[in-house]
Amino acid sequence: MEYYYGDIYISHTKRIEITMSHLTFKIVEVIKKSNPEQTHSIEIMHYALSIILNTLFIIIASLCIGGLTGQLKETFLALFSFMLLRMSSGGVHLKSARSCNIVSIFICSLIPHITYLIHNHFIWINLFSLLVMILCAPNPDANAQIPKEWYLGLKIISIILVSLNFWIHSFVIGLAFLVQSFTVIIPLQRRSIK
């Protein structure tokens, strides 16, 4: 029975992804036709707009699940915390938009429901996240083209964000930061961009 619901979810996600890609292409065509001289290529605009629409899909789907399960505020907090730390610390990306959507929605919807598991380990989880930020952040994607001069500032922002949770003492934020910390720890070959 579990596999049946998982298959339905993946099937719907595929359909949504195809629809979003088609919608993105139509929007980009309209933008290009309205101003062909001062716009980027269709491929570049399609890529950028698909990132925006995928992010919106993750946010909306996660918040819908959070609302249906009575954890709307906590789901919003998990999403916001994860995204905020990710902007400054970077991290690995999954290979496809579909896998990113599925994993992100699953994680951001799950975090509010499992906070009871970390009550006795809150300090250790925060310390682990802080240590990862000190040692590994920032770890931007190679396509991000972030100047190396900004790395120290991004590291400091990441450290401050995680450190604030020692004062806020939020289990949801702690778990969101923990998950984001795992995305920052990556194989050494990517570290060579620093």
Automatic annotation (TrEMBL):
The keyword Protease applies. The keyword Glycosyltransferase does not apply. Keywords: Cell membrane, Hydrolase, Membrane, Protease, Quorum sensing, Transmembrane, Transmembrane helix. GO terms for biological process: proteolysis; quorum sensing. The chain crosses the membrane at residues 47-69, 75-92, 99-116, 172-188. One of its GO terms (molecular function) is peptidase activity. One of its GO terms (cellular component) is membrane. This is Accessory regulator AgrB.
